[in-house]
């Protein structure tokens, strides 16, 4: 595939399992999360995918997912660039709270708006719009030039930092982004055109 860009959300984390808002907190992967990351790697291996460089956040669940994918495709230790710009959306004051407890306290609708709307920030945290505002410049400056030069790029990151990227790549709008969910451990395989638009997208589901 030409101009290959693969996006992978980390596998299940300890706090995903406990149903806690996580954001910039740093829990590790669960055993299931490790297996999801390995499965993502196996799916990429089955397509014959190899990378020239990997990007991840400064959070361990994404870094470990990145390592596990690289191990599964036979490229352990591939050059990996870690940057805070790819971190999960900062959930601010919600970080560490149980999502069901938050629904009981603030109502289903309000919690859904904080989690999935484009421009409403959770208290003390980042909206998706804020997340786009840090992820997109990093993508344009550091990731996209490599893809355009023909380097095959893996980005192992988070539900909302990747939703920010997918919003831009897929041309989603503030109206259509709320229904877009990214599953843990299912890689999105993009091939880009010379003008940086998407030529092809595959969702590597089971
Ligand atoms: O930070 C978190 O809690 C999760 O990684 C993503 O949460 P969300 O499903 O509420 O966006």
TrEMBL record:
Its EC number is 5.4.2.11. Substrate binds at residues 9-16, 22-23, 61, 88-91, 99, 115-116, 159-160. Pathway: Carbohydrate degradation; glycolysis; pyruvate from D-glyceraldehyde 3-phosphate: step 3/5. The active site is at residues 10, 88. Catalyzes the interconversion of 2-phosphoglycerate and 3-phosphoglycerate. Belongs to the phosphoglycerate mutase family. BPG-dependent PGAM subfamily. This is 2,3-bisphosphoglycerate-dependent phosphoglycerate mutase. It comes from Microvirga thermotolerans. The gene is gpmA.
């Amino acid at each position: 595939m030409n101009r290959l860009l693969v996006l992978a959300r980390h596998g299940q984390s300890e706090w995903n399992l406990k149903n806690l808002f996580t954001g910039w907190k740093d829990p590790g992967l669960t055993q299931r999360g490790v297996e999801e990351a390995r499965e993502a790697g196996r799916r990429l291996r089955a397509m014959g995918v190899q990378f020239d460089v990997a990007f991840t956040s400064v959070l361990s669940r994404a870094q470990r997912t990145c390592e596990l994918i690289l191990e599964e495709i036979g490229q352990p230790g591939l050059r990996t660039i870690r940057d805070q710009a790819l971190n999960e959306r900062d959930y601010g004051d919600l970080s560490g709270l149980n999502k069901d407890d938050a629904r009981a306290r603030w109502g289903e609708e309000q919690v859904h708006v904080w989690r999935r709307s484009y421009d409403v920030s959770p208290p003390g945290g980042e909206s998706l719009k804020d997340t786009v505002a840090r992820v997109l410049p990093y993508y344009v400056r550091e990731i996209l030039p490599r893809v355009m030069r023909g380097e095959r790029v893996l980005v192992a990151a988070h539900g909302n930092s990747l939703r920010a990227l997918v919003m831009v790549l897929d041309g989603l709008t503030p109206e259509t982004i709320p229904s877009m969910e990214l599953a843990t451990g299912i890689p999105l395989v993009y091939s880009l055109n010379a003008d940086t638009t998407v030529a092809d997208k595959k969702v590597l589901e089971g």
